[in-house]
Design goal:
The chain is an alpha/beta fold. It contains 9 helices and 12 strands. It has 2 domains: about 1-90 and about 280-300, 3-Layer(aba) Sandwich (Rossmann fold), CATH 3.40.50; about 90-275, 3-Layer(aba) Sandwich (Rossmann fold). The strands form 2 sheets. It has a 7-stranded parallel sheet. Strands 2-1-3-4-5 form a 5-stranded parallel sheet. Helix 1 (about 10-20) packs across helix 9 and helix 3 (about 90-105) packs across helix 5. The longest helix has 19 residues, at about 90-105. The structure holds NADPH dihydro-nicotinamide-adenine-dinucleotide phosphate and oxalic acid. NADPH dihydro-nicotinamide-adenine-dinucleotide phosphate binds near residues 68, 141, 142 and 163.
C-alpha cells in the first residue's frame, strides 16, 4: 500500500523525498513512478488533474496541501473519502505576520506617506493610536483566531465574525448573517480570513464596503483580503477606492491568478498587491503533519481536521 503525491506546479520530488525520509516503512510514490492505483491508500494533492483519483479502489483519505479546499471540493471526480486539510502552526504564524504587517501599515497611514514621499510633500498627518482602530476579522477559525489574539495583544480593538458564536478573550464576537452589518459598522480595517463557500463568494462587495465605519482612518476604511480571490468583486474594489468608500486595500488573492496585467488594481497607489504568498505551506512542517496523520491512521486512530463537505470548509 502507498502514499501518492500529486502536486501540480509544486516540487513533487522534493516533497516525496521528505515523506520517504519521514516514513521509511511506508511506500511513497509520485506520478513519475510506476504503481497500481489500487495500492494507493492516501493521496496528497494540490490542483489534481481530472483523472487524479482514477482506479483508486482502496483510497482511505485525500490529503490537501492547501489549508483552503474550495477548489479541491469542486473536483468533478472527488472520491467519497475524508478530505484532510493542512492545519499548521508555521502557516498560521506566517498568516498572522502578514495580517499584522498590513494592519499596522494602514493604521500608521503608510499608504498616505508613500504617496507624499513620491511627490516630495512634507505634511504631518497624525495616525490614530492602535486602540482607536477597530480591526474586524471575517472568519474566526484557525487563522482568524490567531490573528485576532495577536492584534489584540499589540493594542488594537478587535472584532470577529463567524458562523457560530466564538469566545476569544478581549475580542468582541459577532455570529451569523444577522450580525454582519453590526460587525461592519464597528470596523475600520476589515480582514478577510474566510473559507470560500457558496455563502461567502463575492462577500467583499460595494454594499459591504459602504457599511464599514468611517471617520477614524484618513482616506477611509481599509480592506485586507488574504483568503481567496473569489471572496472579492474586484470591479467594486476599484470603484470603492476611486470614490473614497475605501481608503486603501491590501490584496494577496485575486479573482484570476496570476493577476492579469490588464487589471486596473495594478495602477492604484492605494492598492497593495502580493502574489498569494501570505502563508505558503512549508515543506518540512507539511511532511511532519501529514506523515503523522498517516502514522496515526495506520495505527488505528481517527483522522483529524476533516473537511465538512456539507459546509464546504
Ligand atoms: P477555518 O475553517 O479554521 O475557519 C473558517 C472560519 O470562517 C470559521 O470561523 C467559520 O465559522 C467562518 N465562516 C465560514 N463560513 C462562514 C459564513 N458563511 N459566515 C461567517 N463565518 C463563516 O479556516 P482557516 O482559518 O484555516 O483558513 C481560512 C482560509 O484562509 C482558508 O479557507 C483559505 O482559503 C485561506 N488561506 C489563504 C492563504 C494565503 O496564503 N493567502 C493560506 C492559507 C489559507 P465557524 O467557526 O462558526 O465554523
Ligand atoms: C492555502 C493557500 O489554502 O496557500 O493553503 O492559499
Amino acid at each position: 500500500m502507498a502514499l501518492l503525491l500529486h502536486l501540480t506546479g509544486i516540487d513533487e520530488a522534493g516533497w516525496a523525498k521528505g515523506f520517504g525520509e519521514a516514513m521509511p516503512d511506508y511506500r511513497v510514490v509520485t506520478r513519475d513512478d510506476s504503481f497500481d492505483p489500487a495500492e494507493i491508500e492516501y493521496i496528497f494533492v494540490w490542483k489534481p488533474e481530472p483523472d487524479a483519483f482514477a482506479g483508486m479502489s482502496n483510497l482511505k483519505a485525500i490529503l490537501s496541501l492547501g489549508a483552503g479546499v474550495d477548489a479541491l471540493l469542486e473536483h468533478p471526480a472527488l472520491p467519497n473519502v475524508p478530505v484532510i486539510r493542512f492545519v499548521d502552526e508555521e502557516l498560521t504564524h506566517c498568516m498572522s505576520d502578514y495580517v499584522i504587517s498590513q494592519v499596522t501599515m494602514h493604521q500608521r497611514l503608510f499608504t498616505r506617506y508613500a504617496a507624499h514621499q513620491k511627490a516630495k510633500v512634507w505634511r504631518q498627518l497624525y495616525p490614530p493610536a492602535s486602540h482607536e482602530i477597530s480591526v474586524g476579522i471575517m472568519g474566526l477559525g484557525v487563522l482568524g483566531t490567531d490573528a485576532a489574539r495577536k492584534l489584540k495583544a499589540i493594542g488594537f480593538t478587535v472584532n470577529g465574525w463567524s458562523r457560530s458564536a466564538k469566545s476569544i478573550d478581549g475580542v468582541e464576537g459577532f455570529a451569523g448573517d444577522a450580525r454582519f452589518n453590526d460587525f461592519l459598522a464597528a470596523t475600520d480595517i476589515l480582514v478577510c480570513l474566510l473559507p470560500l463557500t457558496d455563502e461567502t463568494r463575492g462577500i467583499l462587495n460595494m454594499q459591504t464596503f459602504k457599511a464599514l465605519r468611517t471617520g477614524r482612518l484618513v482616506g477611509g476604511p481599509v480592506l485586507i483580503n488574504a483568503a481567496r480571490g473569489g471572496h472579492q468583486k474586484e470591479a467594486d474594489i476599484v470603484a470603492a477606492l476611486n470614490d473614497g468608500t475605501l481608503g486603501a486595500v491590501s490584496l494577496d488573492v485575486f479573482e484570476v491568478e496570476p493577476l492579469p496585467r490588464t487589471s486596473p488594481l495594478w495602477e492604484l497607489d492605494t492598492c497593495f498587491i502580493t502574489p498569494h504568498i501570505a502563508a505558503i505551506s512549508n515543506e518540512q512542517s507539511g511532511v511532519g503533519y501529514f506523515s503523522q496523520i498517516i502514522a496515526d491512521h495506520q495505527a488505528g486512530n481517527g483522522l483529524r481536521n476533516i473537511v465538512d463537505r456539507g459546509r464546504g470548509y
